[in-house]
Amino acid sequence: MSLINRLKNKITGNNKKDVVLDKIKNQKENSSIKKYEKGLSKSRKSFSHKIQSLFVKHREVNDEYFEELEEILIMADVNATLTLDLIKYLKQKSQIKKITSLAEMNDLIFEHLFNMYNPDEITEGLNLTKGELNVILVIGVNGVGKTTSIGKLTNLLKKDYKVSLVAADTFRAGAVEQLKIWADRNQADITTPVKPGADPASVVYEGIQKAKENRTEVLIIDTAGRLHNKENLMNELKKIYSIIEKEIGAPAKETLLVLDATTGQNGVVQAAAFNDVAELTGIILTKMDSSAKGGIILSIKELFNIPVKFIGLGEGIEDMEPFNLTNYLYALTEGLESNEQEE
Ligand SMILES: Nc1nc2c(ncn2[C@@H]2O[C@H](COP(=O)(O)OP(=O)(O)OP(=O)(O)O)[C@@H](O)[C@H]2O)c(=O)[nH]1
Ligand SMILES: [Mg+2]
Q1: What is the CATH number of the domain that holds 333?
Q2: Is the pLDDT of residue 175 over 90?
Q3: Is residue 129 part of a domain?
Q4: Same domain, yes or no, for 11 and 160?
Q5: For residue range 288-301, what is the model confidence (pLDDT) as tens digits?
Q6: pTM of the prediction?
Q7: Which residues fall inside 5 Å of ion ligand 2, going by CB?
Q8: Domain range holding 196?
């Protein structure tokens, strides 16, 4: 019997996971789920495949099993509090349900992850208004994938909005050229600094004037990667925010923090630092495809009240998806399901 049917027989009451599995089964051809499955394959190996491998080592649920499970969760970057809560829950539940087999434990883990979160939770999209000039500011430390994500985001948004770009990274040689390439690929307008090292706020000012003239609806601002020297960052952001307010008469619609999933808990530290100085409205989590630490999303959810709005699943222009918790959890835990079916 398939896992889905088995669970349906076994679990009574309204179980969110059943609903989710049904939905996913019906949408297997959905290209977004396929992208998630592919992009999260490394994370899946370090999560569900490792949990499966406990089958080989342990015949039954015991203290050693729980210790190893805890280690797997921590290594997958599920934060410590969440890991301990999860282990505590699994220990209690397995006692109550008198679970001794690892197959049933896998059921429990799979089920609990889906029950912890609302599978119907619609990730907030971007807060954009058609027909108006909406500004999106993109910030984050060096090399996390800001410019690449702007290229991908432009590709996603250009179907519905007129998008223009601003190269306010006046600091790094080559940064302007890099954004220009993405602008060309997307056939989007771009405002560049008049000279290297120009004041980023002045480029933003120019960008807004041009945007008003050519009826841009979404203006995306690329900024220089910087380590979190809070004072400098705060001053620079203040200047940019005030130019936006003054020139548009409304604040930036989105300030997106870009985090690199491969940096693990360091990303969590960056989120905390940026959250102190910027009015963050969302996170773009990049390089999920290169990371084995998919648990970082659960950590971010646990620690900050900032939605992950997009995840980067590769280097190509199409390799960024709006974040979808159901697809993500499914792609992370999928191995557990096939393990069940093979039994
Ligand atoms: N595999 C993978 N690589 C990515 C992803 N996003 C960005 N990259 C790569 O990460 C590297 C850095 O990307 P950039 O977009 O230049 O990063 P940045 O934050 O703009 O960097 P600075 O401007 O130097 O601060 C590039 O080689 C990108 O191709 C992703 O989702 N997956
Ligand atoms: Mg850049």
Answers
A1: 1.20.120.140
A2: yes
A3: no
A4: no
A5: 999 888 888 888 88
A6: 0.88
A7: 146-147
A8: 134-323
